[in-house]
């Protein structure tokens, strides 16, 4: 099979029925441009049984899963492919609890592997938004009673969103960035990472955008209770609804990974037939991460905050 396409789960199981079929799929992606030994850099080698590659120079044997996000998967490649398939093709968020029950995986194991998939879904930052862009901030965690405007409640998770619109005012692409506050310093990264300096950008009257006018073409207008940013606020509602499908608390430390997953899927909504294959390709290209790395980062985050 050259490339799996579509969202039919029965067809998916038919074409990738076991771990060997999934390993063959990975090997074809991993070595499609030729073999390069990770130990010595040699390009001379041969494929061995079990979809491994043997280096002629240093005799290192590398598996199709080595140095990818599938490295040392504990519950089998087919189940790992199924998790990636569900996350990339489903229109609604799926919790690690649901995923664990669906594929007979421990909830913690399912959550950790889902974090790997989300890592692969992170933007490459190679294709900035270029045309008409609407930018605004929002919070995740509910509306405060008796308050209007921007929330400074430390318990709420703050974010800034950039939505690119088509010529007929439809949503084309979306990027979301977790922020600590609404200052220009916190708002700047989403511009630097995802928006072209040639784009036409429209924001509300918040003063945090003022310093960015030196570099970006920004027009500030009144929000009019969201009426002037209708498409953007529809996307914000979709994000919040999508996160509510996760029955467990999403911490501030992990929220960016969930934003990355949401943006990855919405930005490829017109390419659903190939989204699973694209996800697997990214997982092959991304270096492996381990549970102790997540724990170390979480410890540093808690200590810092």
Q: What do these coordinates show?
A:
- The protein has 305 residues and is α/β, with parallel strands linked by helices.
- It has 10 helices and 8 strands.
- It has helices spanning 9-15, 19-30, 77-89, 96-103, 107-120, 184-194, 230-244, 255-267, 275-285, 291-304, and strands at residues 45-48, 52-55, 61-63, 132-140, 157-165, 171-179, 200-203, 217-220.
- Strands 6-5-4-7-8 form a 5-stranded mixed beta sheet, sandwiched between helices.
- Helix 2 crosses helix 3 (77-89).
- The longest helix has 15 residues, at 230-244.
- It is elongated.
Question: What labels would you give this structure?
Answer:
single chain; 305 residues; alpha/beta; three-stranded antiparallel beta sheet; 10 helices; 8 strands; elongated
